Amino acid sequence: MEVPCDSPYIISRPSIKKLVVIGLLSTVALAAFYSFARNSRLSTSACGSAAHATLQATVPRPDYPWPSADAICPQTSAIAPKKNSAFLNALEAEYNTDEFKLKAYESLGGAIRVPTIAYDDLAPPGQDERWKIFGDLHAYLEKRFPLVHQHLQKTHVNKYALVYHWQGSNDSLKPALLTAHQDVVPVEPLTVDEWHHPPFSGFYDGEYIWGRGSCDDKPGLIGTFTAVEELLHIGFKPTRSVVLAYGIDEERGGISGATAIRDYLLDTYGEYAFSILVDEGGGYRVTDNVIMSTPGVAEKGKFDVRFEISAPGGHSSVPPEHTSIGMLAAVIKQLESNPHTAHLNRSGIYYSLLQCQAAHDHGLSSHLRDLITRSRTSDRALAALEAELARTDRLFGALAGTTQAVDVVRGGVKTNALPERAEVVVNHRIDIHSSVAALKKRIAAVVQPVAERFGLDLDAFGENVVLPSDGERESAGLLRISDAFGTALEPAPITPMGESGPFKLLSGTIIGVLGASNRTGYDKKIFVAPGMSTGNTVLPDTKHYWKLTKHIFRYGHINTADSYNGAHTVNEALRAEGFIEAIRFFTWIILNADESLLLE
């Protein structure tokens, strides 16, 4: 049920003294857990990913020769606070109470009820009335999280983006940066009746919290606020400074929010000033055999390309053999007849994910495990693995190569007027081993035969391409290829992994949080594998944060099974217990980062 702020179900919390006593009493129990964490289940932790290969799981042959998991996909042990263990124990006890859970559910529900929609056509903040709803969210946050606003320094950036600084006692330590975004995508009006509960209700039905933003990304926003509020409530004072940053238009590329936050943080702290950055992204997946966590360590690039054909107009009663629209159709056909070929790269993130699955998930079919294992040294096995994944996994192309999608077509104004202009915009998500320049070169080569066939002049990204037939014919028009919106983005720098301290800290924290969870079905082997965004949504705000730190992790600690129907769609909802797990993760990462020697 939905619980308002003043509900009688929100029972006052125990006193700080009582909580700390509870924490101290539970130290023995938690110590037993960390002793257990060194066994085969919890000593596996670090190799991470947001990309899940939908691989067939069957019972393996009893005599199958398992490869050495540690050699293929090294893992770290569970990491939990030592100096700050009493604080963690107190909050773990509180987070397990019904009183806290109901309050946390209502905190998320209340944020969902503020429809902070990021429209694509928003004018800059201060020039568009639709931004004002973000002021309502800020007022809600101030009321809901009073200690955060009492103890942290808040800065408004570009009017509605928010940055909070939590000062630590040791300025020689680089701050930790936790980010999220306040905005959500619109709800299609024609689908409102299809929702089980109104799309901005924030309704808690006893299992799920419903509404736009319940999955993307108000759990990150409210989860970090809740963790900091609770840490302040029990008297925690950080050694390492913590910075919270919240964008306002991630859903349209972060052009007003994340860019302003980036500039502010660079001006205030400098380049590469943060020890670690955690933003939305990957999560974890619970199967019959294992729990696989996949923090994103890479992002594909993005390039929207416009193909525009200009040709003479006239009356439709005397048409040419091919109109601009007809020639544009040939361009589209040429593109789709020449798709990008997906390949596994042995140095790639996706390939590393497959190796981790083969090493640690004994539910993987013996056939697939054998292909993955042999592909390390055999090109023939690598090709067979590519063929198998292309046949069985619809995400293979998106994870192992550049993709293209014809998304927007325009042309013609009237049925009796020849179209003088026709255009198509094709979206590309660039493989992490490729580049914008390489994609431009390929595109020009692919469509050049079409330009020759129709006698079109060709301008490819500002360069006039000389065709063999030039000078021998009269031009039928112009095919111009360009960056559609001026937003071309190279693939992101890959976050350091392996022996990197921040990667070990994040992986060990994930292992610790999941291993200490009391949720049903979590008592199994846990491993971390490197993940990558397929770019199946607008790329996260982290694309603007590359100069803040080399250690960027796209990870929200949400179980994929806790999402009712996914984000950006009808009936977006998050299982409430999953939100508690996210709050636990943010608490653990703050406490671990505060005392860890793995960070600068």
Automatic annotation (TrEMBL):
Record keywords: Hydrolase, Membrane, Metal-binding, Protease, Transmembrane, Transmembrane helix, Zinc
Stretches of the chain forming a coiled coil according to its record: none
InterPro entries: Bact_exopeptidase_dim_dom, Pept_M20_carboxypep, Pept_M20A, Peptidase_M20, Peptidase_M20_dimer
The organism's place on the tree of life at top rank: Eukaryota
Keyword match Signal: no
Record-annotated Peptidase M20 dimerisation domain positions: 298-451
PANTHER family: N-FATTY-ACYL-AMINO ACID SYNTHASE/HYDROLASE PM20D1 (PTHR45962), N-FATTY-ACYL-AMINO ACID SYNTHASE_HYDROLASE PM20D1 (PTHR45962:SF1)
Protein name: Peptidase M20 dimerisation domain-containing protein
Organism: Pycnoporus cinnabarinus (Cinnabar-red polypore)
